[in-house]
Amino acid sequence: MTNYIIRRLLYLIPVLLGVSFLIFLLFNVVAGDPTAVLLGKNATARQMEELREQLGLNKPLFMQYLDVVKSAFTFDFGRSWATKQEITYMLKQGAYPSLTLTIPAFVISTVLSLFISLFVAYYRGKGIDLFIRFLCIAGMSVSALAYILGFQWLFAYKLGWFEISGFEYGFPEFLPYIALPAIIWIILSLGPDVRFFRTVILDEIYQDYVRTARAKGLGEMTILLKHVLRNAMIPIITYTVIQIPFLILGALLLENFFGIPGIGGMTLNALNNSDFPVIKAMAILSSVVYIIFSLVSDILYTIADPRVKLK
Amino acid sequence: MKENSLWKDAFIRLTKDKWALASLIIVVVYSLVAILSACGFIAADWAQEVGASNLAPNAEHIFGTDIFGRSVFQKVVRGTQVAMSVGLATSLIAIPIGVVLGAVGGYFGGWVDDFITWLYTTFSSIPNIMLLISITMILGKGLFAVYVALGATSWVTLCRLIRGEVMKHKEREYVQAASAIGGGHTRKLFKHILPNVTHIVIINTSLQFQVAIKSEVILSYLGLGVQGEPSWGTMIDDAKLELARGVWWQLAGATLAMFIIVLAFNILGDALRDSLDPKLKGK
Amino acid sequence: MKSLVIFILAIVFIGCTKEHQFDARELHLISPEKIAGLDPIHASDRYSGLEVGKVYEGLFEFHPLKRPYELMPNLAEALPQVAKDGLTYTFKIKEGVLFHDSPAFPEGKGRELEARDFIYSFKRLADPKLSAKGWWLFDGKVKGLNEWREKSSKEETTDYSAEIEGFKVTGKYTFQIKLVKPYPQFLYALAMPYSYVVAQEAVTHFGPEFLNHPVGTGPFILPKYEQSNKIVYTKNPNFRVKFYPSEGEEGDEKLGLLSDAGKKIPLVDRITVYVIVESQPKWLGFQKAKFDVIELDETQADQALTEERVIKPEFRNLGMRLVSSPQIDISFFAFNNEDKIFKDVRVRQAMSLAYDRKEANKLFQKGTGVIAQSIIPPGLAGYESEFKNPYVAFDVEQAKKLLSEAGYPEGKGFPEVTVQTRNETIARHQIEFFAKCMEKIGIKVQVGMNTWPELINKVSKKQHQMYTMAWGADYPDAENFLGLVYCPNKAPGSNGSNYCNPEVDKMFEEAVILQDGEERTAKYKALNEKIALEVPWIFGFHRTKFSLTQAWVKNYKFMEFNHNQAQYLNVDFEVKKELRKKF
Amino acid sequence: MTAPLLSVRNLTVEFHTSEGVTRAVNNISFDIPHGKTIGIVGESGSGKSVTSLAVMGLLQKPAAKILSGEILFNGEDLLTYDENQMRKLRGNQISMIFQEPMTSLNPVFKVGEQISEALRIHKNMNPKEAWDKAVDLLTQVGIPNPAASAHKYPHEMSGGQKQRVMIAMAISCEPKLLIADEPTTALDVTIQKQVLELMHDLQQKYKMSMMFITHDLGVIADIADDVVVMYRSNVVEKNTAKHIFQTATHPYTKGLIACRPNLGNNPRRLLTVSDFMTEAGEEIKLDAGKVEVFDKESVPEKSSEILLEVRNLVTQFPIKGGLFGRTVDHHKAVNDVSFTLKKGQTLGLVGESGCGKTTLGRSILRLIEPAAGEIIYKGKDIIKAGSEEMRQLRKQMQIIFQDPYSSLNPRMTVTEILTEPLIIHGVGANRAERVERAKWLVEKVGLKVNQMNRYPHEFSGGQRQRICIARALMLNPEFVICDESVSALDVSVQAQVLNLLLDLQEEFGLTYIFISHDLGVVNFISDHVGVMNAGRIVEMDRASEIYKNPREEYTRTLLSAIPKGKAGLVL
Question: Which of C361, C477, D60, D515 is 20 to 30 Å from B222 at the Cα level?
């Protein structure tokens, strides 16, 4: 097992190099010079030169690439150009609100999708199966922006069930703020989740061991919940674990519209203000987390499926 | 008995499912509308002022008018052209890259496969939204940048699927039979394996199509969308200001138009997978 | 199946709003822009200025109520004595003023403010290492300062102890500033947030984190600034004695703006500022009384005002009050005058004539904007209300005639023009309307959407044909606007349209060195009329600022330049308690 | 005679699918007395499996419809039972085992858990008791160190062991009736023998009656007391085993028995069902001339020229391990094999699964690159041949694969499949000429010309194998390897294909290597036979020599494992 983990971690290096090169290409080489941006409308050419020097933009390109690589491996992203704050500090600040929204929404939507897909698989082919699947697909066919505008206006303002925007720290306090965005997240993710889980469960239902279980006199429901689910969990775990890295990125639109000071809002703000250090930091952070989680998902895969031995 | 290939078989099965048939018709209608509006036969005068600004839906203008008094219905129809072209262009960029890289990686294995796996892992580890935005920032604004950005981010899933499928088919006996009769790599890959994995491309394309349409809205929100042409994305973005003013019909019009086509593509994608994917036969 | 339904109900139940606990003396305000940290030398836009203004203070401030705006001493004892040659200013500051308590000071106790603190703050503005956005304020104005900046940019660390000829500390509470050449607007510069006073101990103690640990002398304190969407200020316990002004503009008495005259300020204990960028949450939140004051943008104005631009009954019944006041600003479509297609003035005049300002005013500002005849907005010396710019009228025929004279009959041969703007929906609409107008004379116009930094980048690098923007006055002096067409200020300076006209430059240089008075106003008027005919920009509007305040908010008056407004606001406790039930 | 345990009375079952209605079981009746084993024999599609599923009540509800009939179990009609009543019965009174041991056990549960599950439901034992009973059952079915094996997962066991676990699971509640649907078909013949013996002993011990379903007459002869023969959803004959094998009355039964190659005799051509019965089902008088027996040795060798010689051939597969997945060891699938093959001869290679016979066949054609040794074809060592030279050689050497469903490209018509080899080698001036040759060969292999534009999925297994043969012969090769080419076919279809191969050999003077695990088939078709085990040829000699007096111990065990039927039955 440890051999496998070491090998996968070593695999992290080329991917990180690849990511940092891609980011370097996108931001340093192509995106041009930010000094005019940072100095505001009354900047003088002299000032811009001084700033370029100070930000190290005059260094040869290769040196700049090394900086990107160094930050990729050391997670020291320097300071944001807009807020002049330590980026790692900002990430820590933003992590709490973002995760209070994304983690519960993610957990509820996964559990809900599992319930629905089991229910739908049990009644496969019948009307209820078609109807619920239709609902889930319909749910994801509306644009996120339309949901945000519509729901915020209807549920938060007109009916007053939820807070319109803002965020409070602490357990019970933040609930009225994240409830509505969480519901929107759930509606949007039910469609793809249910579709995937149902296919996986159906694949298992038609396997031979289910026929054997029936021959043993097990009821359809016990077969579904014991035998089929246990097998279906293998692909479901990998599918779910791979989505975790994107929780960290937070929900850009939801946070921006519902006034949640999370990483998503911060990223969107950075993208809007060409705050390259923050954008680079986010890209590197999410790719490192992505790779680590794909490793975690492989390991979970072997734990769930006794047939797979980590070579 | 007339011979029918697997494609005809699948098509017959597909059209038996009335939902799939309805979605297919919707997709065809939308494509027709898109082509007609592209050639200027319909909704060419969408920029015409037809009434007072922000008129509520009425008999004459079923979707009402926008801030400049332009008919929202005309804009929605015109918007179909942008949406379908975004979906189509994205697929036209994503399919060749995804299929070629996936096939080559899956078929040859070894360091070629490692390189391609490294490539798509790198691409998929950076969140889509960042790739989208940085590419559009570089290529400048407008439809072309949107096409390239969406294309560059959607080839990854297709490449991964095709690679897996090609690896499976490479071991199948009909491929070994092809080498037994002296067939070379190109013949085996392009004449034998690829035709048997194209169903993956079709299923994935119909699902990617709707993702592209939805992404166009987000890009418009970030100001990176299409300029000068009405698109559902810009219309929903306008709604940001209008909803508070009680002007809901532009949001409703664009969302409804998009809802129908995205729903159609989703249902079509599921139906295609059931009818094309041999594994799920007879469920 | 049953458990599923209960589950969903649970989410809905815990989600509903909790009752807002409120205490008497608390204000809830909105900032529509993200705040990048509280450092005076970087407070380049109005909203970061307002936040800085709650914690820091400057030598002078504009009188909160008197219009037209006039300076009044803040940390200074009185207005400075100006030597005959207009170059040497002598200042005396108030005694006994204390900095906020902060770990930067010995035993955490805020020390007394001294004259040398001001010199340190001005030097910090000039420090090349910090590349302060406000440096243009002192650039080329103070004797020896530019040389000092030049020298420091070569050294490793800036040497603050170095003597500068222009700054001389003459006593614990007195200091002198010597200018290079007469600069009448210099006092205004000392009222802007850029020149607010900071303590050297705080800057060295917090280092790069200084912008998140403001230590000023202001009425409110903010120990730690969190990058979040909510900033909470509390009253400064040892704030110096300062009273609410007892006289103001004619009519303020009737509006109740003088009811707190003579009271010790600040009048509230706590201010919470919510950072909300999107229009819908702001507007809906205000209607649920989450916020006390809201500056209305175009759509919200449309929603809140009747056709006669009066507050709608449904809001009046909730006790809300509409505060409207003309802004000293101008919105415009700027040409890139270095682009050869705009060289011919007739082209510029034709495009200006073809722009239907009345319709635009109705569509985008509900008719509340004042059509700009030239560059100087109303409320500043040099503005003539009777002056009518012939090229501001809406005359498509005349425009077509001028265009064909310039060699482009019916717009044939005229290239497609892209107007750059910031990626805001309302800006896109305005350009789409502008494009519709230009289409009538055969000119095709495209929208160019950019993030704010991209727009600044394009303007400062002259990579544009046209761009649209609005310029708000930094200080109440027409020089601030006339400088926008002064050739030496060409991009990357503030003259984004790169307009160069030797005549205009000569008239500008003669006018700005004069002290405020009859002679200078006459020169400003002549210059204003000259610029009007030259049409360097397509002049848009001088806009009116609309704000809505809840019934219980007292002393709210729109203050263009005064960033210390928060200390003058008050809350009527009874009205708030009784009206709360209505929301 | 006491009432039979189970009696099926004119049962009719139909399947309603999107492709239309098919009648799977047509008015069949038979009884299963207590303690007796009834063998149900029939080819695929005869309805035997559907019958067993009907008894167990496991037919897929929406599609399958039971139109009429009764299934009396201890006098009660199971068809009237509702789902709950049936569930109490399944696994308790009636239990069932299936054909594919590889996939019939749940891969993620321990073997012990799966066995004890039925016990806990039907006998409501607590987990501890159930586990101990499970371990005891494992000993009964002959699993080595049962206590440890109970903790194993299915993938850690061989096919034979997994089938034993299935049997343990089935008999856990001491059922009255055990239904076995092709339990040993997927097993190697030696293991099949042990499993059949085990089932026989358990039947005696628990006095169970058994319904044994298979297409293999040999197995039926071994285990069944009475036999029911099914053909196209009808029961054509049912009688005691002795009567069926010696004095079968129905032509289909006679055809079925005759077309099975067995070691006893060496017919020149196998009889097929069509020699006994027309398509419509009437009987045809068998003319004696067809049964031509000849002694292989007496036939003079066609030519003494050696077409192919293999010298100490080795093919190995790397075994990965260590930190970087370096190859740590090699598994020698073909381990130092040498033999010669004369032109026009047929060399049979027989052995159990995993003995390397397929790898050997593929290595000779360099579909898998051998590691060492020489393959001299017409005097030239083809291992050293360059890629172009190899391509030319491919014209003369061809291969026919096992699975007719996966060896034809599903998206090409028959014409395209057959003309492809000619296109690759540029044979035939134009398309018309190539299609002409394809037409000629299609007729040669017994298919109709008008079917040439059809796609593979529209043909039966036997027809597809004929297409593969036609494809192999398009370049009129001299040497063809048949890799388990008939194993996937039904017995009657198998006979036709074997006869076709022999006819083609005579007509075109082909040389064959025939690879199979079925000793009967290999004996029938080959002149010489090589018995393989663990990558080596343990014994090689003339076919009749191998069967009359096998020298090697391994060959003897293989021969003895072939089911020949109980004493007294002539097979």
Answer: C361
